[in-house]
Design a protein that fits this description.
The complex is a heterodimer of chains A (256) and B (116).
Chain A lengths: L3 E13 L5 E9 L2 E7 L1 H4 L3 E6 L10 H8 L9 E4 L5 H9 L16 E2 L9 E7 L4 E3 L1 H5 L35 E3 L3 E13 L4 E5 L9 E6 L18 H14 L1
Antiparallel strand pairs in A: 1-2, 1-12, 2-11, 3-4, 3-6, 4-5, 7-10, 7-12, 8-9, 10-11
Chain B lengths: L4 H10 L12 E10 L2 E15 L5 E8 L2 E8 L5 E8 L1 E2 L19 E2 L3
Antiparallel strand pairs in B: 1-2, 1-5, 2-3, 3-4, 6-7
The chains are: A alpha+beta (256), B mainly beta (116).
Amino acid sequence: MVSGILGKKVGMTQLFDDRGEVRPITVLQAGPCVITQRKNASRDGYDAVQIGLVEFVKGKRVTKPMQGHFGKHNLPPVKFMKEVAVTTPVEAGEKQAKGENPAAETNGQVKIGDKVLVDIFQDEKFVDVTGTSKGRGFAGVVRRHHFGGGPKSHGHMFQVQGSIGASSFPSRTFPGQRMSGHMGVDQCTVRNLRILGIDLEENLLMVEGAVPGPKGGYVVINKAKQPPRERRGFAGAQTVDPLKAAKKAAAGKAKK
Amino acid sequence: MSISPIMAKVAEKLQRKDIPQVSPGDTVRVQVKIKEGDKERVQAFEGVVIAKKGGPQASLTVRKISFGQGVERIFPLNSKVIDKIEHVRSSRVRRAKLFYLRGLKGKSARLREIES
């Protein structure tokens, strides 16, 4: 099994859940992807697969070396490729340990040219989504580091930084001083977005909340690395926290 | 910016189809589901539609006068809270948002009914 898929952000909307509450959702086009290369522990030192997002790409648009890479296994040309982990079943792992024909080793029962579809998330509740954040250009300190800024009146400048260090001692600015500079266009991961819908026909995945990047931006969707623990109120039920309830009751009594 | 075809499809799926067409100036009765404990009942809210929002997050703003006090409620049309919307009567109005009704009361807040 492959643990992730590539996709594109389509846009945001909202839906109403079973309890009638509104949920903001991001619609992601997830896949279809194709496995373009396999990495295995014996040769590369780790297990993974390289997958590519299948979309309409002219063969001429990819470089000659990449044409060769795809041509080797008769794959469609793809523009966006990433490596994702594979969860290797026990049998395959044993085979590898014995060194049985490592070149033809099925890496967790996946082979080059296999399709990766959004159905890998059917049993999952949460995903991590990695994208490239929107570019902010050269941004000042208020926007970039959430500085407070100056007073808005009494003849002051508004969004300036103020002091960046003391005077004669140490006579320098310490490294790491937060200043204005380029902001955005960074890789950014949002963890544990709840899956609220899967459309297998259209290859769509709906997750609750926002995803980094503009509409049409490429994203990597992985199974949640550290999904939230099953705990009280996890299922969305409004169970009362006994500790808080006790405190509330005590406060109410005190008032009376 | 135009909406992407995928988003249009998704919106189409999430849309409630059983809501009738109403326009500003109409008087409607909205049946609202209310949960009390584990029992559910339906409560009606009758008033004039003073605003309508379209798109995937469509809503109706309904205004009524309750015991001399103006009350407005905004209903998201795709919400499961709405049991049904009944059309009571239509009135002739000349604008899409009837917020001017907020400043009027009594006789001047009336709307002329369409004979149909």
